[in-house]
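Deviation from plan, reported transparently: zinc ion complex.
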Amino acid sequence: MRIFLMIALLFLVSCGDEGKVTISDADATQSDTDISDEDVQSEDRDVAEQDGDVVAGDSDMVHSDADSSVSDEDVQSEDRDVESGDADADVDAAEVPDEELIDCSIRPVSPTERLYPVVGEIFYQQIGLSGFSMGESALFVGPEGKVILIDAGNDSHDKVIASVIDDTVSHMNASGFPTKSTKEIDYAIITHMHADHSDGLQDLLEKLTITGKIIHRGFVDITNAAEDATVSQLCDTIQSNPGHEFALCEGPTRTGCSDWSSGFPSTGCNGLNAGDVSVDGDSGYTYIPLAGGSKVQIVAANGYIAGKSYEATNDPILTEDSNGENARSVAGVVEHGNFRLFFAGDLTGGGSSTDPVEQFYAGNIVFVSDAGSHGVDVLHAGHHGRDTSTSSLWLGALLRADGPSRNMVMGISAAHINSPHQETLTNTLANNRLAEGRIWTTTVSTGGATDPLLINANGGSILIRTAEQGKIYHIQAISDNGTIVETRSYYSAKGCEPSGH
Ligand SMILES: [Zn+2]
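Because the crystal trials were delayed, the predicted structure below was used instead.
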């Protein structure tokens, strides 16, 4: 019964979002528009105009934002980062003299077979999730075979996710990885406490064992923006897997999960727990270590990035609207050689009157990741392609319009009605920022926008695999019966020589 209530609730939330979008899109007649609609409309226009300005000055804007908000201490740490970044580049150049900057206007040759993990490279699968409930989940495999789940879909999605893990690990076992149980994952990252990202974990971990940590934003700032039943369920799941919790923000000591079904505490986060998530009390950046210096770095959560708080420098994050929970999403970057993939759950960027947390992070990513200075190769679109996410400033920071091709991946399920939004596609494709790249989506749901540069797996999955230690990556859309829809290959942007547009 609870599942159906949840679906109904999510549908209402979804309808609420859509109402705002329709108003902003439509040339609504005055007679149809009451005062509050007009307010929303003009606010949307303001946001659009503001975004337009940002597009014009893209990367300059990002730098000036970062500069304007930094203290002396930050500048020092930025200098350190820049120095160490330079040092790395020098070391790379010294060790591999042949590895010079690449002319990336030519794309590498694409494989013809379906992509599976190979030893020494990373693999990512945005899993196609069908059915009546919204859900999103991605499977990530490290160069040595670590299996990491980023979100776990809804209650009804655990079977599909378990079968993807079984299929993937079976292929890994047959292709030179250290033998692994097909009933095992190493880490799970839950970006935020909404049913479509979190609820599937409980049933999944009744089928599979987790060897490492369940990483989540922390049981803090649990407001009406979170979903009560989902918070309780995640709490139960963690209690059933003792020793496997990594909360990015520490909350009060929990006495039990049933208490969480009413009156959640709204105590705040005091900054993110740091270091290697498998080592208690470690320091430095928060990350999951992978072989060969590759890692999944957690760069932000709960409004915190680089030791700075969104709420301390901006307004409090929404507490009543579900987008207030989206705004607290965990953000991370997968790093492997030159390759960078960025994910941030349903992080909000100001569209449809959400908190513009993307903008705050965009100005500060440079302090915690070179994604802030080079951009990324693949950006996971927030909130299933809705216009609450993927602001122009966010795009300007991560999908830079500076020559190299870049790609976007969207995790949309059929129940995410009206996804993706046209505005998201338009902003992403503006300024030729993707160059030869594409927007790849698991599906286009009823009412969702389409575009010739949008590649649709029609309910299937989007697969990504690097090659040559991250110098190259392949992206592929497969249908749910495994038929290849399209495969394209690219040089990772960090290794590309600067070029004109
Ligand atoms: Zn979602």
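The radius of gyration is 21 Å. We consider this an acceptable substitute for the interim report.
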